[in-house]
Design a protein that fits this description.
There is one protein chain. This protein is an alpha/beta fold and 363 residues long. The protein folds into 2 domains: 12-222 and 275-355, no CATH class; 224-273, Nuclear Transport Factor 2, Chain: A. Helix content is 32%, strand content 21%. The longest helix has 24 residues, at 332-355. The radius of gyration is 20 Å and the shape is globular. The structure holds flavin-adenine dinucleotide. The site of flavin-adenine dinucleotide has 34 residues, from helix 6, strand 5, strand 7 and strand 12.
Length: 363
């Protein structure tokens, strides 16, 4: 055997939880998406991270689907869109961008309520038979839920700015027998689920049942304990139970309490609470979703919507045709701002990935 072959790097099929621990969990680049916990019966969420609870026969599944072990965006884009993105496509590949707003906006909606309207439309038209959403408890701890009604989707509206292993609930959806699962979440969660869908064999645990991915824009996410202890309780003297809403807008991180009073700091002042595993992420606009939704680029109370795949475009068109959303053209200034922020995140990735010695993530 030639020396090169003898010492070749192991393929992902030959890597197990040990390699995941070494490459992702120990160096704290894990984004806690919950994918390894969802699809490997030997991994559980313990002490707020993935933990092996049984002998690991080196099946390679956790390593394969983790968005932080390796991520070849070019390969995934080619499979999903039939081409790779051009250098000027800072928000990833999409067919159409609009500003939109749900016509019956829920008070809980973060921006235009479009993420909720899309999921409701998908459920009511039978595109999906359940949706995995990220709700919260009364202290703002995230709670991923498998929901099947419009009211349940609406109840989970609003942004929780803390890490959530929400992909784990996809397992619950499969165990409950749902066959057309929709998911809404952050770019890392969408990357993981796209890997689950698009990576070549050999694993088969029902991933064809994941049929819709609604992605959110995301600059960064926060650690629950750090954010609540440091900012909400520490700086603002608030009990998380008394918080009505969190928002990030125009460079400020704002906490609105139940009396309606706003407490705010400059976004730079929240760096200490940022989740460390968000460092090695370049993806601002959930570039691998079917349809992405964010606030940047649109007026207050409106959402920026990027339709990426045929499925995403059709779902948005049906939601518009049903009168559940109204739309207007997105301004050039709005698009430029969204693209600038996406560029900033990609630049931050370059620095952070060097600092954190991240390898295998390529755009
Ligand atoms: C951590 C985080 C950071 C974000 N950062 C930005 C940003 O920098 N710029 C920007 O333009 N937009 C950002 N967004 C997106 C923005 O906050 C809104 O989610 C988006 O504009 C959709 O608004 P909407 O009114 O259409 O959504 P809604 O109708 O209110 O629905 C929101 C959906 O988001 C899901 N969700 C809420 N919290 C989480 C979570 N922690 N993890 C996974 N899913 C969740 C819920 O399941 C819900 O269905 C961020 C979102 C998150 C979760």
């Amino acid at each position: 055997m030639a020396a090169k072959e003898k010492y070749a790097e192991p393929t992902y099929l030959e890597c197990g939880f040990g390699e995941l621990e070494y490459k992702v969990i120990s160096p704290e680049i894990c984004c806690r998406c919950g994918t390894c916990e969802a699809f490997c019966p030997r991994i559980e969420h313990k002490e707020n991270k993935p933990a092996l609870v049984e002998y690991d026969p080196l099946c390679g599944l956790c390593f394969a689907y983790c968005p932080r072990t390796f991520l070849d965006m070019g390969e995934l884009e080619a499979k999903l869109f039939g081409r790779t993105r051009n250098a000027d496509e800072a928000l990833g590949i999409f067919k159409k961008a609009v500003s939109a707003q749900a016509t019956a906006r829920q008070s809980k909606a973060q921006d235009g309520g479009v993420a909720t309207a899309l999921l409701v439309q998908a459920l009511e038209s039978g595109i999906i038979d359940c949706a995995v959403v990220t709700d919260r408890d009364d202290e703002w701890r995230t709670v991923a839920r498998v929901v099947t009604t419009a009211d349940e989707v609406k109840a989970a509206a609003g942004t929780k700015y803390t890490i959530s292993n929400s992909v784990y609930a996809v397992k619950e959806a499969m165990e409950k027998g749902y066959k057309k699962i929709g998911f809404v979440g952050t770019p890392c969660q969408i990357q993981a689920l796209r890997k689950v869908q698009l990576l070549d064999e050999p694993y088969d645990f029902g991933q064809k049942k994941i049929v819709l991915l609604v992605g959110l824009f995301c600059m960064e996410n926060f650690d629950y304990d750090e954010l609540m202890e440091g900012l909400v309780k520490g700086k603002f003297g608030l009990d998380p139970k008394d918080v009505a809403r969190f928002e990030i807008s125009k460079g400020m991180f704002r906490v609105i309490d139940k009396s309606g009073k706003a407490h705010e700091v400059k976004i730079e002042e929240t760096d200490a609470y940022t989740f460390k595993g968000c460092g090695p992420c370049f993806d601002f606009a959930s570039e691998l979703s079917d349809v992405s939704v964010g606030s940047v680029g649109s007026a207050g109370g409106w959402s920026t919507v990027l339709m990426r795949t045929d499925a995403g475009e059709k779902l948005y068109a049906a939601t518009l045709a049903a009168g559940a959303v109204q739309e207007k053209a997105i301004s050039e200034k709005g698009m430029a701002l969204a693209m600038r922020l996406a560029g900033n995140k990609a630049q931050r990735f370059e620095t952070k990935s060097q600092e954190m010695k991240v390898s295998g993530i390529t755009r």
